[in-house]
Fold HTH iclR-type domain-containing protein.
Amino acid sequence: MQSLQTLERGFLVLETIAKHQGKLTIAQLAQQLEMNRTVIYRLVHTLVEMGYVHLPDQQHLSISAKILPLYRGFEQSIPAQSQTVLEQLSEQTQAVTAMVLAEGNECVVVKTACHSSSFLQLSYRLGTRHPIGVAAAGIAIACTYPEQNNEDQEIQLARQQGYAFSQNVLQLGAVGLFIPVPNRHLAIGTMGFHEIEIEKHLPLLKQAALNLMF
């Protein structure tokens, strides 16, 4: 099916502005996207008129609060208490925590939490995507689907153990421990640098996953 080029470009503009919130001018946006400046100006003007983008200093582009109802609509697809559960888990484990959601052939980071006592923290940004079956998060998500023929050994092992562990996959030095959330294509986990206390984190992760079911 043929895509609508103007609509596609409009969303690309919106995504790029959000990624560089308050840092790009229209000229810089055109350069970033390698598009004609006149086309970019028209797209930005439309988004400004609709209220999704604003120019607080008449130069740099920012996403406006009008985007929030769209996000709230999406949030209805994940457990309402997700952020609270992740924050509690982060304090209990003293690690970065995250929730990922299956979307097509990818898993997407939809919630994160960081404890407040660390000077150095690993960042797993909201909206980060990578293929299902890759890294601990992707492997745990794969386990939420029925077993497939010729599955990777990592996924088979995660099914047997009830959790997925990975190291140095998405970032050098980063380790992750994720478990699937029962009856949903979701997974939650903890992340850190170089090591994770699996025996300590695993029961806390299991309890957090149960809390997400209610």
Observations:
- Strands lie at 53-54, 62-63, 96-103, 106-113, 129-131, 164-167, 174-181, 186-193.
